[in-house]
Design brief:
The complex is a heterodimer of chains A (220) and B (234). Chain A has helices at 5-13, 28-31, 85-93, 129-135, 196-201; strands at 21-24, 43-46, 50-53, 76-82, 99-103, 106-108, 113-114, 117-118, 122-123, 138-142, 154-155, 170-172, 176-181, 184-190, 208-215. Chain A has 220 residues and is an alpha/beta fold. Chain B is globular and about 50 Å long. Chain B contains 6 helices and 11 strands. Classes of the chains: A alpha/beta (220), B alpha/beta (234). At the A-B interface, α3 and α4 of A face α4, α5 and α6 of B.
Chain lengths: 220, 234
């Protein structure tokens, strides 16, 4: 069975290490915050100018001056700090953020990532994504393995405009996990009941298979 | 010199001309100069180049300047959530220069600090790098980006003293402090004016040197784009 959105987020949460400063993108990456292991202390950064992002506020605490990069209302923590966009991106571009988890529309076998526009169809903009993939120490990409029409999204080369070139360090899809070593993907995990044949069939990118390929064991 | 003005129209008096470049602070609808934007709308100034991370939403924030087609060009990192923007861009009425968010913030910071250009890794290998100077430092490739200055910067702060020393509140700070430094003229709107000495000099976010005029805005809407909450657990 392929992983659900929540299970993908759960798998991504395993990449968090104690003491990490982490930026979570919009969508499934936001869910990762729900699965931070109890013995791991991480600080969440929101690129609109906050460190120590707290959970969604209680209804009586909603504050229009306190939002995350997805424009959702959030809350602050005792350790929170606020700063300008320039300071925020100095953290990001200066390599001070340990890990970024973000969504993608396409990923290529050398770690190129496309997630900001579909020419002629969707123009939203890159927001902070180009800065994040260029500056953050480790970039974890999350996406569905295939598009709605079952066409592959993990490709030889992206055909959408890139967000960054050779920037992905780890790709987690609903079918498995690929680790990029020297811009070459290695399949390191399969979701339960997903076969090597199935994931190969649904992938256009060339990848190697880790000899110790394991199945993800559910840890609740 | 008295920096406080009576209202937003007075605050912009003598500063506007067609074809000008205006920076506007804010992220989404958070920390936007909502009153000064209405004054811009009412002034009828046109062919503006607007430098702002977003362009408001339909009917609020900078979105109201799209309705009247006062904006010629936007320099932004994200323009989603705005149908009119998309329409005008697709039909070719509106120019758009996409600028990665961190590059945008740094371009404003640099412009305000008298730095005409800088190198960054952001955007290397993407369309953003096309036509820009590439340079290698320590074996890594960077592109050159230019500093930005504006004829006028409009910012929103929480409090000001009579000298124009500003304090922002929470994530409503965002682009406001850097844009305040990068305007040839900077006009601020604040929720409250406090007396001299009421702001802690150690905790002033924008020193008054950057602020030429300010107003105290009334009846702030401070709209929220997406209200997300959690339940109280028993």
């Amino acid at each position: 069975m392929p992983w659900s959105r929540e299970e993908i987020a759960q798998r991504a949460a395993q990449e968090l290490e104690d003491g990490f400063y982490v930026n979570l993108g919009i969508g499934i990456p936001t869910l990762v915050a729900n699965y931070i292991p109890e013995d791991v202390h991480v600080t969440l950064e929101s690129e609109n100018g906050m460190l120590g992002m707290g959970p969604f506020p209680y209804p009586d605490e909603v504050d229009s001056d306190l939002i995350n990069a997805g424009k959702q209302t959030i809350s602050e923590l005792p350790q929170s700090s606020y700063f300008s966009s320039a300071d925020s991106f100095a953290m990001i571009r200066g390599g001070h953020i340990d890990l970024a988890i973000l969504g993608a529309m396409q990923v290529s076998q050398n770690g190129d990532l496309a997630n900001w526009m579909i020419p002629g169809k969707m123009i939203k903009g890159m927001g902070g994504a180009m800065d994040l993939v260029a500056g953050v120490n480790k970039v974890v990409v999350i996406m569905d393995h295939t598009a709605k029409d079952d066409s592959p999204k993990f490709l030889n080369a992206c055909d959408l405009p890139l967000t960054g070139s050779g920037v992905a360090d780890l790709l987690i899809t609903n079918l498995g996990v690929f680790d990029f070593q020297d811009q070459r993907p290695i399949l390191i995990e399969l979701a339960p009941e997903v076969s090597l044949e199935e994931i190969t069939e649904k992938t256009q990118a060339e990848f190697t298979v880790c000899p110790k390929l394991g199945r993800h064991l559910h840890t609740q | 010199m008295i920096k406080l003005r009576n209202n937003e129209n007075e605050a912009l008096e003598g500063l506007l001309f067609d074809g000008m470049t205006i920076m506007a602070g804010g992220f989404g609808l958070c920390g936007i100069p909502e009153h000064l934007t209405i004054a811009l709308h009412d002034s009828g100034v046109k062919d503006i180049t607007v430098i702002s991370n977003n362009c408001g939403i339909d009917g609020f924030g900078l979105g109201i300047l799209l309705e009247t087609r006062q904006i010629k060009k936007m320099i932004s990192s994200y323009v989603g959530e705005n149908k009119m923007f998309e329409q005008q861009y697709m039909s070719g009425e509106l120019e758009l220069e996409f600028c990665p968010q961190g590059t945008l913030a740094e371009r404003c910071r640099a412009g305000g600090a008298g730095i005409p250009g800088f190198y960054t890794k952001t955007g290397v290998g993407t369309v953003i790098a096309e036509g820009k100077e590439h340079k290698e430092f320590n074996g890594e490739t960077y592109i050159m980006e230019t500093g930005l200055v504006a004829d006028l910067s409009l910012v929103k702060a929480y409090k000001s003293d009579p000298e124009g020393n500003l304090v922002y509140r929470k994530t409503a700070r965002n682009f406001n402090p850097v844009m305040a430094t990068a305007g040839k003229v900077t006009v601020a709107e604040v929720e409250e004016q406090v007396n001299l000495g009421d702001l802690d000099p150690d905790n002033i976010h924008t020193p008054g040197i950057y602020v030429d005029r300010f107003i105290v805005g009334k009846d702030y809407q401070k709209r929220i784009e997406i209200t997300t909450t959690r339940e109280h657990t028993a």
